[in-house]
C-alpha cells in the first residue's frame, strides 16, 4: 500500500466559531501492512469531561483509538471480525486507565465515542470495517466503484439537524445529550465506544482490489462534498481527489461552509465539520 495524499482540518465549534486546536479527527496507517484508518471523535456534549488536560474528550479518544490500532494491529492471518473482538476490550482497558473519573460513575452522555472506517488489503481483496458515519470510496484499476460504510447515515443526520437547529441552544444541547446517552445501547446508534459489544455491530465489507486500486477513506466532514452538498457523486469525488489533490477539495469544501445562517436550511449541526481524508493505493 502507498499513501498518496492526506489531510485533516478542524471545523467549527458546536456553539459557533472555529476551533483553535487540531480538531477531533485522527488517522493512522501502515503502508507495509497495507491498512489505513480514519477516526472521527464524537463532539463533546456531556455534562462532564472525563479526560484531564486534553484538547477535548473527543480528540483524546480518537488519539487513543489511533494509537491502539497502531500498537496492536490485526494479524495478517486473522479476519477483521476476530481482530476487532480482541481490540475493543483492550481499547476500553486503556480508556479506564486514563480517565479522571471511573466510567461507571460518568454520565452516559459523557462516554467517549467515535466513528471509524478501517481498510486493509489482503489476498487481492480489500477488507473494510466501519461503525458510524465515516466512509471509504474504493475504485479498482478496472473502474469498479465500491462504497464501504453506510453512506445513507449522512442524509439521516442532515434530516435530524434540520429539526434540531430550529430549537433553542439549551434544547439543542439537551437533545444531543439524550441521543449520546443511548449510543451503543439496544435501540440506539452503534459506534466505536467503550462498550466491547460494539464489535458485533461493525459493518464488514470486501471487494476485489487488483493492483492499482485506490481508496479514499474519510470522515463524514469531508464526505459532505457528496452529502449533503451534492457537489460530487462517490465516483466523482475520488476521481477529483486523484486529479486535483485533497488540498484543492478541502478549499472547495470550506468555501461552501462560510455562512452559519445556512446551517438550519442545509441541515448541519456545525457550519464546518472536522474533515479528514486519506488517499491510498494498493
Could you walk me through the main structural features you see in this protein, from its secondary elements to its overall organization?
- The chain is of the alpha+beta class and 282 residues long.
- The protein has a single domain (2-281), classed as 4-Layer Sandwich (Phosphatase 2c, domain 1).
- The chain has 8 helices and 10 strands.
- It has helices at 57-71, 80-98, 152-164, 169-181, 220-223, 234-244, 246-255, 263-266, and strands spanning 2-9, 25-30, 35-41, 114-122, 125-131, 135-139, 145-148, 203-208, 214-218, 275-281.
- The strands form 2 sheets. A 5-stranded antiparallel sheet has the order 1-10-9-6-7. A 5-stranded antiparallel sheet has the order 2-3-4-5-8, covered by helices on one side.
- A hairpin with a 5-residue loop joins β6 (135-139) and β7 (145-148).
- The longest helix has 19 residues, at 80-98.
List keywords for this structure.
single chain; 5-stranded antiparallel beta sheet; Phosphatase 2c, domain 1; alpha+beta; 282 residues
Largest sheet: 5 strands, antiparallel
Number of helices: 8
The best one-word shape is: globular
Q: Report the oligomer.
A: single chain
Which runs of at least 5 residues are low in confidence (pLDDT < 50)? none
Please, what is the CATH homologous superfamily? PPM-type phosphatase domain
CATH architectural category? 4-Layer Sandwich
Helix content: 25-40%
CA(first)-CA(last) distance = 4 Å
Structural class based on helices, strands and sheet pairing? alpha+beta
User: What is the string of helix and strand elements?
Assistant: EEEHHEEEEHHEEHHHHE
Strand order of the largest sheet: 1-10-9-6-7
Question: What's the number of structural domains?
Answer: 1
Q: Count all strands and give the number.
A: 10
- The averaged pLDDT comes out at 95
What is the top-level CATH class? Alpha Beta
> Any idea of the CATH topology?
Phosphatase 2c, domain 1
Q: How big a fraction of the residues is strand? A: 15-25%
The whole-angstrom Rg is 18 Å
